[in-house]
Amino acid sequence: NEEMKIMQEEIFGPVVSVSKFKTTEEVIKKAHLTKYGLAAAVFTKDITRAIKISNMLKAGTVW
Question: For a tag on the chain, would you pick the N or C end, based on fewer CB atoms within 10 A?
Protein backbone atom coordinates (compact mmCIF):
# COMPACT_ATOMS: atom_id res chain seq x y z
CA ASN A 1 0.00 0.00 0.00
CA GLU A 2 1.02 3.64 -0.33
CA GLU A 3 2.08 3.85 3.33
CA MET A 4 4.89 1.30 2.94
CA LYS A 5 8.48 2.55 2.99
CA ILE A 6 9.12 1.39 -0.59
CA MET A 7 6.24 3.59 -1.78
CA GLN A 8 7.38 6.69 0.12
CA GLU A 9 11.18 6.72 -0.09
CA GLU A 10 13.87 6.29 -2.73
CA ILE A 11 15.17 2.76 -2.36
CA PHE A 12 18.56 2.41 -4.04
CA GLY A 13 18.61 -1.22 -5.02
CA PRO A 14 17.14 -3.72 -7.43
CA VAL A 15 13.51 -3.31 -6.34
CA VAL A 16 10.23 -2.38 -7.94
CA SER A 17 6.95 -1.23 -6.42
CA VAL A 18 3.66 -1.82 -8.21
CA SER A 19 0.44 0.00 -7.52
CA LYS A 20 -3.04 -0.51 -8.95
CA PHE A 21 -5.20 2.36 -10.14
CA LYS A 22 -8.51 2.88 -11.91
CA THR A 23 -8.11 6.33 -13.48
CA THR A 24 -5.27 8.39 -14.88
CA GLU A 25 -5.98 11.07 -12.28
CA GLU A 26 -5.63 8.52 -9.48
CA VAL A 27 -2.23 7.27 -10.69
CA ILE A 28 -0.86 10.82 -11.05
CA LYS A 29 -2.09 11.68 -7.55
CA LYS A 30 -0.44 8.53 -6.13
CA ALA A 31 2.82 9.25 -7.95
CA HIS A 32 2.95 12.80 -6.63
CA LEU A 33 2.36 11.80 -2.98
CA THR A 34 6.06 11.05 -2.51
CA LYS A 35 8.54 13.85 -1.88
CA TYR A 36 11.03 12.13 -4.19
CA GLY A 37 10.82 11.84 -7.94
CA LEU A 38 14.06 10.59 -9.42
CA ALA A 39 12.45 8.08 -11.75
CA ALA A 40 9.13 6.61 -12.82
CA ALA A 41 7.99 3.93 -15.24
CA VAL A 42 4.78 3.55 -17.21
CA PHE A 43 3.69 0.14 -18.49
CA THR A 44 0.71 -0.13 -20.84
CA LYS A 45 -0.21 -1.48 -24.25
CA ASP A 46 -1.63 1.95 -25.18
CA ILE A 47 1.25 4.19 -26.37
CA THR A 48 -0.96 7.29 -26.43
CA ARG A 49 -1.91 6.75 -22.79
CA ALA A 50 1.74 6.08 -21.87
CA ILE A 51 2.86 9.38 -23.40
CA LYS A 52 0.00 11.29 -21.73
CA ILE A 53 0.82 9.86 -18.30
CA SER A 54 4.58 10.30 -18.78
CA ASN A 55 4.10 13.98 -19.55
CA MET A 56 2.04 14.46 -16.39
CA LEU A 57 4.56 12.81 -14.04
CA LYS A 58 6.96 14.98 -12.05
CA ALA A 59 10.06 12.78 -12.24
CA GLY A 60 13.62 13.18 -13.39
CA THR A 61 13.36 10.20 -15.74
CA VAL A 62 10.30 8.37 -17.01
CA TRP A 63 10.61 5.04 -18.77
Answer: N
